[in-house]
Amino acid sequence: MTLAPTSPPVELSLEEYRFLRQLGRVTDDLLEESLRERETLTQCFRRCFPTLLQHLGARGIAVTTRDEELVEQTWSEGDWGGVFAGGLLAGPTGLSVHDTGTLLTQTLDVAGSPVGTLGVLYAGPPGDAGVTAKRLRALDVVAEELDTVLMLVHTASEKHQLILQCNEHLANPVFEAGMDHAVRTLAQRVRLPGFLLLYRDAVQPHVLHYRTYRHGQLEYESGEQPSAPLESLVHQHGTRLLHGDAGVLKRLFDGRTTEAVLISAATRSEPLGKIVVWSNEGFSAYAMDLIRVLASTLSQRLLDYNRERIHLSQFFPTGAIDALLEDPDYARHLRAQEQEVGILFADINGFTRICEQGFDSPRSIGRFVDEWSARAVDCIWAHGGVFDKMVGDCVIGLFGPPFFQTDRVRRAEAAVRAAQDIQAFTAELSAREEVAALCRRVKLPGLGVAVGVNLATANCGLFGPNRNYTAFSSGMNQAARLQSLAGFRETLVMESVHEALKQSQEPFVRKLQFGPLMETPVKNVAQPLRHYQLSP
């Protein structure tokens, strides 16, 4: 039987007033001591319940609420007659009579947010209305003290759970997808009308990317959904937007705006990015605390993401890196696999003579090689190739990896196109006065390269302690030997390349002219190399 609680009288006797004050003080002291000792809820109730039972003159006391893991539990003390206290507290609040006695229950809440239920069991049937009213007032005093403590525990637990969820989202190998999920999860718990992530490009630190969200949903991003005002600001101010309190960003958004700069704990020289949030109503301390924690986690995630992009940028062009990192299982494309690939070796003609007679210092050699090799790698990337490595002044490219979506004809075409481009830009360098003077000093007719192109099966993937993308096969060795046979501004292609190009319908390929088939024995290779000279 459940009865509605009797409304307590307005006037309290002095004795009851002193009792309630003492009860409140005792409860507060017990809870404060528990908080000071940083006890768990179990330890807290174990500390409080015996004393409260004594002061209330009750038979049993129980609280149903969520624990530190946000799992609902019931803690009880006293004699409940073998009945589970949580089952009794699950009923309507107020006064109810049971075989075990008279139960008074009250909802625990703060600012209208329920955090649990408090119940006190008294022996025997309910007394008169005056007794019930006094007991309800005593219950209310204890409840008021418990409300705040339980709200603190629940708020901290919810915050912790939310942080774990955001961290889990940010661990997504696809950074953008993880970021979208994290912001959406955050917006489900706190008011987040506007959210901007602005961050540096890993490979080109002067380039900025951004993602903006409206109530947790992606609104604009610097790739396929650009924002005209943001594009203008990024173009005008560049990376200065990441430093300090950039007021120009605040003027772009409505309402109150707050910024959090993303800085790596490992390298504090330059900010990695910035979070900007805005709202007409501002943000609560709870929301700002979550945003700061997200900023800290995001800093580390950006650092890891950038490190991965920088590593991949040694081998792949930006488009391939983007495609790789959009695949949650992108590592499968980088594992060793046996495939037929186009292979290119390009080496500067007379490089030893140039180094010994043409430059006045090793630094000058380095600058020269840096410029030439960067442009050679750009030629490889422009035709979908992978930069394998550089051995001395020899640049090595692979065509087919990392996705192997093209057939052997396309791979042969790409390798030859890249070879032609390398030959062309290298020859054009001879027109520069400093390069022409260099060639005159070393008695060369100009700057040129020797190129060897092969089409062969190789084992491709990340290898070695530095996890470099490379390939191993006899075909690689053949391409290296072929390149060493090539003369000034000469490109030699293996028979396999020539045969594949016969199947091409590309106008560019149809115009290519080859010399006769040649066979050249080379050291440490069992069979002579069968190859063609590609006419300039």
CATH class annotation of the largest domain: Alpha Beta
The radius of gyration is: 37 Å
Q: How many β-strand stretches?
A: 19
Low-confidence stretches: 1-9
CATH third-level topology of the largest domain: Alpha-Beta Plaits
Which SSEs are present, and which pair or pack?
Layout (H helix, E strand, L loop, with lengths): L1 E2 L10 H23 L4 H16 L3 E7 L5 E7 L6 H5 L4 E5 L2 E10 L2 E10 L6 H42 L4 H15 L4 E7 L7 E7 L2 E5 L6 H10 L9 H6 L3 E7 L10 E7 L5 H28 L5 H8 L5 H4 L2 E12 L2 H8 L3 H21 L2 E7 L2 E6 L8 H22 L3 H9 L7 E15 L4 E5 L1 H12 L4 E5 H7 L5 H4 L7 E3 L8 E6 L2
Helix pairs in contact: 1-2, 1-4, 4-5, 4-8, 12-13, 13-16
Describe this structure in words.
The protein is α+β, with helices and mostly antiparallel strands and 536 residues long. The protein has 3 domains: 14-157, Beta-Lactamase; 172-314, 2-Layer Sandwich (Beta-Lactamase), CATH 3.30.450; 318-535, Alpha-Beta Plaits. The protein has 17 helices and 19 strands. The chain has helices at residues 14-36, 41-56, 85-89, 129-170, 175-189, 228-237, 247-252, 285-312, 318-325, 331-334, 351-358, 362-382, 408-429, 433-441, 474-485, 495-501, 507-510; strands at residues 2-3, 60-66, 72-78, 94-98, 101-110, 113-122, 194-200, 208-214, 217-221, 256-262, 273-279, 337-348, 385-391, 394-399, 449-463, 468-472, 490-494, 518-520, 529-534. The strands form 3 sheets. Strands 12, 13, 14, 15, 16, 17, 18 and 19 form an 8-stranded mixed beta sheet that branches. The protein has a 6-stranded antiparallel beta sheet with strand order 1-4-5-6-2-3. The chain has a 5-stranded antiparallel beta sheet with strand order 9-8-7-11-10. Strand 5 and strand 6 (113-122) form a beta hairpin. Helix 1 runs antiparallel to helix 2 and helix 1 (14-36) packs parallel to helix 4. 34% of the residues are buried. One of its GO terms (molecular function) is adenylate cyclase activity. This is Adenylate/guanylate cyclase domain-containing protein. Residues 342-483 form the Guanylate cyclase domain.
